[in-house]
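Subject: mismatched residue count in predicted assembly?

I count 426 residues in my input, but I want to confirm that the predicted structure covers every chain. Input:
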Amino acid sequence: MLNIRLEGKLPIYEQLYNGIARLVSSGELFPDEKLPAVREVAKQFGINPNTVQKAYAQLEQAGLIYSIPAKGSYVSGEKAAAAAVKEEAFRRTEQELLNACRAGVSLDEIKSLADRIWSEGRNGDL
Amino acid sequence: MIEVKNAVMQFDGKNALDGISLTIPEGCAYGLLGSNGAGKSTLLRALSGIYRLYSGEVRIDGDEVFDNAPAKERVFFINDETVQFNNMTLTEMKNYYKRFYSSFSEELWQKLYSALNLPLKKRLNTFSKGMKRQAAVICGIACRTPYLFLDEAFDGLDPTMRIIVKQMLIDAMMDTGLTVIFSSHNLGEIDEFCDRVGLLHAGKVVFDRELDSVKGSVFKIQTAFDAPVTKEQLSGGGVDILHMETSGSVTHIIARGDRDVIRASVEKHSPKLYDEVPLSLEEIFVYEMEVLGYDSSKLG
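Triage response: the counts match. Full output below for your records.
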């Protein structure tokens, strides 16, 4: 069973993708842990097996999981998963920065926010 | 594969199907949407070989279905009507289908039956509406036809039964590559389960597309302009403005088209704010129907 809730308006495969990506990055799924089979995931959520397949294929493309023919899908090793998580975080940040830019937030404000977060992060306050 | 070409069906001189063309690939879970009287059930009956078309054709794996027993054996149609079985017990109903469908699996039927709580020896006219549906569903799945059509079959089932039936369908899709068509008014259900959706209106196809591309084609946008901007200024170049209203300084827009093109079209008017959310299938249905003049606001 995957500890994910599917809700919201994004396409189901994207919700599943985001949910599994979160489980991988939070460490709830271990490196080399076997993911439930497509059929089980489809049954758990009552969704189309093709949709599960699509989410798995995209997770594999992103390097978060890998598959062994006739055996199943597994969570990628720590290094590969960390790189994929970093890339995903970067992509999300880019989107949020765009939103902030449109909403009229200045570059200086963003810079001082980033400075604060990075220095607090280094001091272990986060 | 299911192919429908220029299908026309008339009742009392009125076209119930008005030149419908559709292709449904194998292994697809297809959601058929539409208002009451749009032609959904008529289309499913034509696909099942119950109706002879006025003109046009319906083919299952290349064969015309009407009056073609081998083609009909590839299809099972679950609809509201179980009257023909009213005087039969569930066992008799099962044996009836077993005679007609050579692919019927007694083993699968027993397995499906054991998941439910239906009496074997009582006549079907003592069953509730939901129990009749369950009986039809397990018979339909046990016939192991490559094509299964469910005409609002989910709508009469309770939530637990809907999950059980979906799990049965998932097994059939994975084990035998079942192609399934649902007609339903429960858009949440279609949203979760289908790959592809078709919207019918007045006997015509409004759209027939991958569900993910439908969901990614209509957006709700919240924006704010310094000077008033009209619908016409934003439309064109592949962008349709389905709905637009301004309250205070904020403008809400429902737009259909490519996400980036919509954004570019709005940004030409230098908005102070741009926030976009994709619409649910239910909301898309309501706005698309509004454009066709089928409008809930007329009641208000």
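The mean pLDDT of chain B is 89. Marking this ticket as 'not a bug'.
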